[in-house]
Specification:
Layout: E1 2-6, E2 12-17, E3 25-32, E4 35-42, E5 45-47, E6 51-54, H1 66-78, E7 83-86, H2 95-104, E8 107-111, H3 123-140, E9 146-150, H4 156-160, H5 168-181
Parallel strand pairs: 6-7, 7-8, 8-9
Antiparallel strand pairs: 1-2, 3-4, 4-5
Length: 185
């Protein structure tokens, strides 16, 4: 898709060009005899997500490149994966990662990078979180591979049981971060 911003006399002032895809994707949850089902629904069809975590490919990020990432993701497809989860303890992949997932038909479960820790909120950190969310959502939201966003990397149970928090303020800050700040985006 290409969008042009034109002046009143027809001169091109700016362009925005992206590959986009249109689909609907929701989560289906229903009580059953085992507890509750959890399925992705893509364009009205329930699917079973099969895949793995995408963690940083290399500890030296400059060695990660489109050719290497494509090979890895093609191996995922060959192994019958239909989804990859960008693990919240890594980093936000480069744009080419999402382009390749779009091309290969992989669903991306995108974690925000707040894994395995609780955070004490200050005004500055609150602002930093909002900026990080806004920047990354705007950057990758047009990708049809993007299936869902996740914020807390499996922390809910640990915080609820007070095993990963040492003060009530940390628990309050956790709730503020994930239930209020994140939900605004």
């Amino acid at each position: 898709m290409k969008v042009l911003l034109l002046s009143p006399n027809g001169a091109i002032l700016d362009t925005w060009e992206r590959r986009i895809g249109l689909r609907t994707m929701t989560i289906h949850r229903q009580k059953d005899k085992w507890g509750e089902s959890f399925a992705h629904v893509v364009n009205g069809v329930k699917i079973f997500a099969m895949g793995a975590d995408y963690i940083p490919e290399d500890s030296v990020l400059s060695r990660v490149n489109p050719k290497r990432t494509r090979k890895l993701l093609e191996q995922c497809v060959a192994a019958h994966f239909n989804a990859v989860r960008v693990w919240g303890g890594g980093y936000y992949p480069d744009d080419f990662f999402y382009d390749i997932c779009d091309e290969l038909g992989l669903i991306v479960w995108q974690d925000f990078m707040f894994a395995c820790a609780v955070y004490e909120l200050s005004d500055d950190f609150d602002w930093n979180i909002r900026e990080e969310l806004a920047d990354n959502i705007k950057r990758i939201r047009h990708h049809p591979s993007l299936g869902l966003w996740c914020g807390n990397n499996e922390m809910e149970m640990f915080v609820d049981q007070m095993t990963w928090v040492s003060t009530l303020k940390q628990k309050v800050d956790y709730i503020k971060m994930y239930e209020y700040i994140f939900r605004r985006f």
